[in-house]
Amino acid sequence: MTRLARTAMIAVPLAFLAVFFLYPVATIIGRGLWPDGTLDLDPIVDVVGDASQREVVWFTLWQAALSTVLTLAVGLPAAYAFSRFWFPGVGLVRSLVVVPFVLPTLVVSSAFLALGMEPSLGAILVAHVFFNYAVVVRTVGGLWAHLDPHQEEAARMLGASRVRAFTAITLPALRPAIFAAAAIVFLFTFTSFGVVLVLGGPTRSTLETEIYRQTAQLLDLETAAALSIVQLLAVIALLVVTERLAGRRGVALSLRAARDVGRRPRTLGERLFVAANLLVALVLLGGPLAVLVARSFDTASGVGLAHYRALGELRASSALFVPPDQAIVNSLLYALAAMALAVVIGGLAAFAIVRTRRAGAVDTALTLPLGVSAVTVGFGFLIALDEPPLDLRTSWILVPIAQALVAIPFVVRLTTPVLRSIDPSLREAAATLGASPRRVWREIDLPIGARAIAVAGGFAFAIALGEFGATVFLARPDRPTLPVVIYRLLGQPGAAPFGAAMAASVILLVLAAVSIAVVERARVADTGVF
Amino acid sequence: MLTSVLQRLVRNAVALVLATCLAGVGLAITTPTAHAAPTVGGDRDVTLRLVTHDSFSVSKKVLREFTKRTGIDVEVLPAGDAGATLNQVILTKDDPIGDVLFGVDNTFLSRALREDIFLPAEVANLAHVPPEFRLDPENRAIPIDHGAVCVNYDKEWFAEHDRPVPETLDDLLEVGDLLVVENPATSSPGLAFLLATIAHFGDGWRDAWARLRDAGVEVVNGWEEAFNGSFTAGEGNGDKPLVVSYASSPPVAVHFADPPPDESPIGTALGTCFDQIEFAGVLRGTEHPREARKLVNFMLSKRFQEDVPLQMFVFPVRSDAKLPPVFERFAEIPPAPFTLPPDEIDRNREQWIDEWTDTVLR
Amino acid sequence: MVGPSGSGKSTLLRTIAGLETPIAGRVVRDGVDLRGVPPHRRDLGLMFQDHALFPHRDVLGNVAFGLRMHGRSRRDAEREARATLERVGLAGYEHRTVAQLSGGEQQRVALARALAPAPSLLMLDEPLGALDRHLREQLVADLGRVCRELGQSVLFVTHDHDEAFGLGDRVAVLHRGRVEQVGTPTEVWRRPATAFVAEFLGWNVLDAAVPPLGTPVGQTAGLVAVRPDALEPCADGPLEARVAGRTFRRDHWSVRVHLDGSERSAELVARGATPPAIGDRLRLRVDPDGVVALPPP
After folding, report:
1. For domain A52-262, which architecture applies?
2. What percent of chain A is modeled with pLDDT above 70?
3. % of chain C with per-residue pLDDT over 70
4. pLDDT tens for residues C26-58?
């Protein structure tokens, strides 16, 4: 791998990030802090000095922390149950738990509200666990599935109780995965928008909803800029801290193939444990979705497909009417475009990260979009990308770009561990068989990495399908995606639009589930974070 | 574990997906928008961009008529909710993203005019618009439709329970426990209702709200949550028979009910209404001011105005526009809705919202 | 090349292959100094300890890899790869994946992969370590046969001297990074050159000062190597010893004795059904043919 090629590999993702994220965000924040050409830091001072804003920051922090703790509490036993035990359908369970994660939070939260949930702190917490359960189960479970059970058994033979062996041997080995999962969950709940807006009610607001209010509603760019900076700093701090904590692999891991480790539950206690976790997953994840599905079939004349038909007929006269198949196609096409972008950018970044020492900084930089408000990014696009050759303001391509920005961190996280785990002796063997360094990269790193990237791409596809935030705040030619269609339907009075919204939600659900399932079948080895 | 067959399959699938991507990209670029109509004898071949919010709607047929008549294509750019749309337009006023903006209401009117985003457009059809709607003497913001934000009540609930149906804002103070309102900070009808109380109670508005708060009024963030989540006659399992909604909700409920009832299940408290007027205008900096004016004029044509009720669930401003039958039968039009001067709203809005938040939410 | 763990065998192979850079010294092949030549241009084959098969290719893909790297067309490479697979007894395995192979099969594939491009020298780094004895013996035999058929030069590294002496045309004994002795198996076996080699081969290293030991080779001081079967229990032998332990080895007993007049102990071979008991006193005779003088350390 020549120096030039390596530099190009890092340069492309960073350039993408710089043009489509850093530049727009800097521009809109700049508008707020440099209103007349002179730096005015008063908004920051005002925000820090304002008690109610401080309360907002505080609330954001502790609800995220509480959500993370709860998600870990519910998710860790499930990670154990679904990764160390084998039972018929365990693969399906592992796949399906990912579906809530990719669903649009604003839309699903609105549906839950309409289906009876009351806005409250409890609702926020439950919704956060609902959406982020999969992060813990898949990240920690993914590593747990490969831990050699002999280590814990050796400890027990030496006199350690079950609990002691767990805390002394297994827990330290799991630490990187637990930290990675906790970091992602904290990041998502810290920047949670749809859940807080809908299920928090008017008395609760977080940094994210505040930024939305200031930017989109009040056009108070100064305050919005100040709040965005506070949020950015918090997110950067979080990412740096977790990078440090998780990166310190103090324990040399003894990894075995997953199929050697999983076994059927034997004792009654084990069976009960697995069953209990299955029940929790069913109720927590399946329950709300089942209600959604049920409502979609609940028509005025009993159980039927009227709502689904209505999707094609309701408001069909409107110039802005989009038949459901068109919305589905729009969603799929945007998701495909986003996936292509995410795969190329994320793949290059993954290859580059594995080969450079400054890996942590690049990874953190690429994860930043997850921590910045979609409204900030969207409005940033508006004022930054307004001159050729980047006059993309009202171009459809901004949608997949915004979606890709959110998907790229996941592509990187899914690919780098696989790349890192390539045995160096494979490269040496190739060299002794006559492969030049470039050939080695092409014959060893690329094929193995490409497969991981393909899996990551499938995941990016599912994420793009359910993306909602950025795509709804941008003025763009009217090619709405499914989440936008659902959002519009929910905003109309009447039984018919509501039922149609439920039907469209179920369609989105099925699309997401199918794409996740397809991705899962194509997986070779389930190492890797997530 | 993959066999080599499945490996090949995966490889092919990836190639297929990438190819579909490229195809999709190409398709997306070349696919015409949902309502691009063939231009008949179009010598100009101009496409106007109409920036609007997500609640905008117009019949395909009506839009096509405009294109047929003038040869101008219209591309609609929805941009989020009303506030977000306006703010995006203001943000980009030096290099506008469209030619015409639709969707500024009277609560935002002053801001729009202050930011000078519109060009004056003294269009011919303005002659048919009553003066109470023409709030901009310079005709930069052209009124297109109006609606009233009112408190709706669940007729069935009140028939079954022994509580009086409120008719005025004063009545409402007695039944605060039955009411769900939207947060004026995040919701347009919520703000309109707050303005109604300010217009009616004057300086005593804070006390009025304190009473409502003490009675147990429910506050939610948006209309969907209020109507479908909390309203007893909505789609969810709500428990509040009074909701801040629109005067058009009763006919709309009938229109979308299956089968359509003889009477609307929802009533309107006519003394609680605040008038919302919605404006459109030609954006300053457009490259096609003449064509843009034509579109705005068309929005005041009978054709467009009569299309408005069933598309956007509001009322036309044009005095000679006919209402659709379901509106004729079931819409109760408030005789004297509350209003406030737009610049007074603009001056005090934030402070009012802050005070409301302090009174009701804290 | 044979030597105990940690003696530097793998490092030596990797240095020859170009995967490690020597701090001092040269690697010279046919008079050409290989310094600066990267591994992929040295035309050397290396079969790894953990075989390092490519998991993302099937058996044929693995074996054909080196041929492709050397410029053969895909068709030619696959043809020759098939032939090599047949040679190692894996005809028909072409399209299996690596994960589907047993340990012995993986070693064969790794061997085939290293053999296929017919390198000027094939290096094998403890290739049979993870296999059970039976499999190992079988593979050693196959290895020898295939390489001799192909006329392939092989540098075979192991810690097991049965393998080394059974397979090699020449044997080198490595100790702490130094070659202590090089020669044909017979030479090295019959005449160990240093105390380490002698001990490594299982000889007894004893004091020459004990007369029956030193006299056959004319030494009265220093050390001598005495083959275990050169010490025979004999009723009137010149050497006296006391039995300290014994181990059953199927067709003989290996008896450990403390020699009078020396602090060292020796191992000797006892045939017959009843071996001497622990604590017994023995008299031993020394076969002069089994005594070799050792240089001073």
Report:
1. Orthogonal Bundle (1.10)
2. 93
3. 100
4. 999 889 999 888 888 888 888 877 778 887 788
Comparing CB atoms, the residue among C17, C50, C70 nearest residue A432 is C17
**Domain coverage including residue C249:** 204-293
Structure tokens that stand for A389 in this block: 């050759």
- The single-letter DSSP state of residue B32 is P
Neighbouring chains of C at 3+ CB pairs under 8 Å are A, B
Q: The tokens of B260 are what?
A: 């359509």
B34 contacts on A by Cβ (under 8 Å): 319-322, 326, 478-479
- Tell me the pLDDT tens digit for each residue of B192-233: 999 999 999 999 999 999 999 999 999 988 888 888 878 888
Q: What is the ipTM of this complex?
A: 0.79
Helix/strand/coil percent split, chain A, to 5:
75, 0, 25
Please identify, in words, the CATH class of the domain defined by A1-33+324-479+506-530: mainly alpha
Pick from B4, B5, B10 the residue to mutate for testing the C interface (most C CBs within 10 Å): B4
Name the domain boundary from C140, C161, C190: C190
DSSP H stretches of helix in chain C: 9-17, 59-69, 74-87, 103-115, 133-150, 161-167, 185-190, 195-200, 211-214
Q: Residue A23 has what pLDDT?
A: 92
Return residues 221-260 of B near C (CB < 8 Å).
Answer: none
Q: Please indicate, yes or no, whether residues C179 and C248 belong to a single structural domain of this protein.
A: no
Residues A73, A75, A77, A80, CA torsion sign: negative
Radius of gyration of chain B (CA): 24
**Residue pair B244/B151 in contact by the 8 Å Cβ criterion:** yes
CA dihedral (A54, A56, A60, A66) in degrees, to 10, reads 90
CA distances to B237, C115, C139, C146, C185 from C163, in Å: 82, 20, 10, 16, 11
Q: Does A52-262 match A1-33+324-479+506-530 at the fold level?
A: yes
Which B residues in the span 46-105 are in contact with C, Cβ-Cβ below 8 Å? none
The reply to whether C228 and C134 lie within a common domain is: no
Alpha-carbon span A371 to A366, nearest angstrom: 10
Kindly state the tokens that stand for A4: 């030039």
* Residue among C10, C44, C48 with most chain A CBs within 10 A, to mutate: C48
Domain ranges (residues) in chain A: 1-33+324-479+506-530, 52-262
The reply to whether C18 and C156 lie within a common domain is: yes
Q: How far is C110 from chain A (nearest CA, A)?
A: 10
Task: Report CA torsion sign: B294, B296, B297, B299.
Answer: positive
- The predicted-structure confidence for A316-365, as pLDDT tens digits, reads as follows 777 778 888 888 998 899 999 999 999 999 988 988 888 776 677 888 88
Q: Are residues C162 and C23 in the same domain?
A: yes
Total-model pTM: 0.78
Tokens 């929790």 map to which residue? A280
Query: Given A340, A477, A524, which is nearest B21 (Cβ)?
Result: A340
Helix-strand-coil split of chain C, %, nearest 5:
35, 25, 40
Q: Report the distance separating Cα C125 and Cα C110, nearest Å.
A: 11
Contacts 24+ apart (CB under 8 A), A520-524: A520/A91, A520/A94, A520/A95, A522/A454, A522/A455, A522/A458, A522/B10, A522/B13, A523/A455, A524/A451, A524/A455, A524/B1, A524/B2
Question: Could you tell me which chains touch chain A, where touching means 3 or more CB pairs under 8 A?
Answer: B, C
- Shortest Cα–Cα distance, B3 to chain C (Å): 7
Q: Which residues of C touch A429 (CB under 8 A)?
A: 46, 48, 52, 54, 113
If phi > 0 it is left, if psi is from -120 to 50 it is alpha, else beta; for residue A231 that is: alpha
To the nearest whole Å, the CA of B223 is away from the closest chain A CA by 7
Domains of chain B by range and CATH? Answer: 47-146+277-316 (3.40.190.10), 148-275+326-361 (3.40.190.10)
Please check whether residue B250 is in contact with residue B264, taking contact to mean a CB–CB distance below 8 angstroms. Answer: yes
Question: Nearest CA of chain B to the CA of C60: how many Å?
Answer: 12
